[in-house]
Amino acid sequence: MAAPYLITGAECYNEVHPRLDICVLQESHPKQFTLFILAWKEIRKPEYQPAAAQFSQIGGIHGMPYTRWMGDPDQAPQSDRGIWLGYCNHASIMFPNWHRPYLMLLEQAISEVAHGIAGKFANSHPAEGKLWIEAARALRLPYWDWTHQRTNQEGMPPVLVDSKLELEMPGGGRERHNNILAYYEFHRPIDGFNNRLEYKIIYDAKDDKKVPDTMAYFKEWKRTYRCPNSSPVDVADDYQQVNKVLTAGKPTPDAPFPIGSWANLSSTVSAMFKFPINISKPLYANAWDEFSNTRFQSGHQDPEDRKKINSWTWNCPSIEQPHNYVHLVVGGIGHMGDNDTAGFDPVFFLHHCNVDRLLSFWEQVYPDYVAGTEGYLSYDGKGRIPFTQTRGTYIERPSEEVNENTPLMPFRKSDYTYWDSRDTHSLKFKSKDLELPNKYYTYPAIAGVELNILEQKLDEKTRDEQRIKLREHFEVYSTQGGHEYLAVVSLSEDYFPGSYMLTLAIEIDGSQYEIGSVAVLGRGKSSSCGNCRGRREAGVRVRGVIPIPSTAIDDIIQSKLPIGARSAPESLDERAIAVLKDNFRAYLTLPSGNLLGWPTEKPIQRAEQIVLSQVQNSPLPEAAAPAIRFLSRQLTEEQGEPRVGEPISAHWRSAPGSKFGYTDHGWLNLGPWVEAVHK
């Protein structure tokens, strides 16, 4: 039996170095970039040893082929079901924590090879030797910052899509190499890679005479693809479509507010820093649950109404929400759009590295908000309920309690024990009080906020100031006059076995503008994932929060209400609320972009000019239909956001039924939903 591959991160020389933006790494650190590409290329070889560090092994941990990772050969299953159920920890309080050692695994494998390459370069070119060795020491896994302004300007950066890369070599030479960041070429068929049919679409938005079968040909495709066409041969990435989505929504005279994917992504990240800095200790686990995953188990405590969210919520999006959306936008029907295959696309790791970056800053601002070991506070505030994994995984029994001590299999530390959520928390270095394992990386500052990797804890005032800086840095939607508006979305995982998304639009003067989306990142019916199957069987729903531009709300009020009946946003009356809610639109789409469903009473517009009368449809069961609530809250103009030690009520005007300063205006009544597919 092979020995375990222990995950320590890039620990060589016991130094901490920053993970860099992939564009910065390429442009400003060419030697590191060269080592990064050459090292990752090396571990892709099928003969690379140790086998546990081969990229094919690492990519397979996330889903298919549903076999044990060779780096943890001695693990014992806790399930008696006799089948492999995978390591999935999505829609779980362990979602961000599990992916941290996963990234460290790839970072470690690349670092080990990079040092060997740097040593060879130093021997062949002694005059440059020190520079190459230093580059290897500093090299860490880079991230793709999809919140950066350039995403709205150009979409995916060229370094992730170009067919060739130019690398700086010893002696001042330059070499062109195939771009291994653009795809991964399989050396052999992956067990379990079956073709997956989205369903037979009745109406193709691009051609009303075509009846397409939108198949993902995972079995035939010889490499990973991003947003590809549905064909077993002559298949290609469609970056034009990916970038069309990412760059959509620039302000125009007709819509003087930023809309679309990039604005939605960045504003969603901003809203993750809206949690109060001084939540009471009994609610720490509830806050972590709301932030860490889209299931939000502590928020769905009414067995009679799974769409209902209880009072212990701060109406903030989870870190898993923008993560899911990027998966679907980049993947389409390709590998990134399905959790079973996503781990083989190189951009998966750069995407998750950015998620980890955001997590790191959130942990610094809110260091005490963790899952703990006592579960979450119940709806009535009288007891605590344990977090559970609905159907378990290969290493978890069905409905087994999970907490910060739950092993994050298959990842073992240097002492041969498994990483757990307590180990992964924060990037503190040599922390004696928490006895955390070192991770040997950090991230560059954001908006002047530096990550504190020293042992001492920052005081509340400093952390609150950092929270506001981070909010303002990522914020795109104006909170004009101190007013915030949002939609809380609830989507069924059981309705559709794979991935899909809801897009929310707002109608102003007869034109509709997409303001945000919430994605369900799933796996097909053929998936062996125990956690995913269990969530579907239990009727678990995905929760998302969509920030709404206040200027759009103002435009509706100005255009829909007579001058004498117009009310200022801070005093919205029932008539104004009714008008606002009447001007929301929503629809469901598949990763291919095909229309999946829509509400019958609210006509929608799309770029392809869908004619709904030509779409055959069937009613969507109530339990499967999306549910959307409209909320608002206000800041006092004098004081702005609540500060440390001051009650929220001193800054937010509350109303009956308000939740932590938000006024809940109820469900959007969009009418019965229908779907445009055969099952």
From TrEMBL:
GO terms for biological process: melanin biosynthetic process. Gene3D superfamilies: Di-copper center containing domain from catechol oxidase. Belongs to the tyrosinase family. Its EC number is 1.14.18.1. Keywords: Copper, Melanin biosynthesis, Metal-binding. GO terms for molecular function: metal ion binding; tyrosinase activity. It comes from the Eukaryota. It catalyses: L-tyrosine + O2 = L-dopaquinone + H2O; 2 L-dopa + O2 = 2 L-dopaquinone + 2 H2O. This is tyrosinase. InterPro entries: Di-copper_centre_dom_sf, Tyrosinase/Hemocyanin, Tyrosinase_Cu-bd. Residues 90-107, 345-356 form the Tyrosinase copper-binding domain. The keyword Methyltransferase does not apply.
